[in-house]
Amino acid sequence: MDDELQAVFNLCVSNGVTLFDTGDSYGTGRLNGRSEQLLGRFSSDYSGINQENLCIATKLAAYPWRLTRGSMVSACQASARRLGRNVDLAQMHWSTANYAPWQEERLLDGLADLYEKGLVKGVGLSNYGPKRLQEIYPKFKERGVPITTLQVQYSLLSTYPVTELGIKDVCDQLGIQLIAYSPLALGLLTGKYSEKDPLPKGLRRLLFKQLLPGIQPLLGCLREIASSKEKTMAQVAINWCIGKGTLPIPGAKTMKQAQENIGALGWQLSAGEITELDQVAASLDKAMVQNIFQTR
């Protein structure tokens, strides 16, 4: 799919989508580092509008064998080699505070080192809750290293980090941009899947079979609002994330998906529509499973 993915990348950038998020753990075995390699190639081969605004972000995994601050610096340098360019935003992929707090301290030191050494333009975190964020924030501040972003699993089916943990309020207080990953809940919010239609294979199939019956009220609400605004359900779901002050990062493997994502920009849901979606989402019995690495 490489050629099609290049076309997807080009379409996104030319339409103002300039942040691309990956991770050094995306691609294992014979595909080791493949995601970063492809993204580096796509950015290198792109020429046109918004080229100077490209921001390539990667997440550095807290692997068990990464035990020193130097290992984070080395990991980012390896990502840069795969990308063929410097990493703009380096992020700690997850916190080890729940099972190896001694490891996390060193890795966070290494993350701050990247900024101090001028190897990255900014640093961020992923899967951190407000309590843990507030515990580590002073250490970064003392070193004069701003935490630029924090990404969490956030969508109409995964409001837990914001509504229950209050992470958005804390990020706003600290000047941190909240990034919403999986804003379409693995595709459940697109309207593509139903109990009658074929479901994806593997673990997603089991998850979808469990969730689909109970989320019909939300899908119905999305469908109704989408119809009234002449948008798709996916575009409404992504726009809802934007309306909440987050930066959603939906995936796109095809031109059709990219065009649909782009169609979520340039307009706004009304306050009433957002409230209606909030109320329906809050009334559901089940929601998406949270990332096991999400801290409080």
From TrEMBL:
Database matches in InterPro entries: Aldo-Keto_reductase (IPR050791), Aldo/ket_reductase_CS (IPR018170), NAD(P)_OxRdtase_dom_sf (IPR036812), NADP_OxRdtase_dom (IPR023210)
Superkingdom to which the source organism belongs: Bacteria
Gene Ontology CC entries for this record: cytoplasm
Keywords: Oxidoreductase
Pfam families, A to Z: Aldo_ket_red
Keyword Oxidoreductase among record annotations: yes
CDD domains named in the record: AKR_AtPLR-like (cd19093)
Molecular functions (GO terms): oxidoreductase activity
Domain NADP-dependent oxidoreductase: 2-281
Protein name per UniProt: Oxidoreductase, aldo/keto reductase family
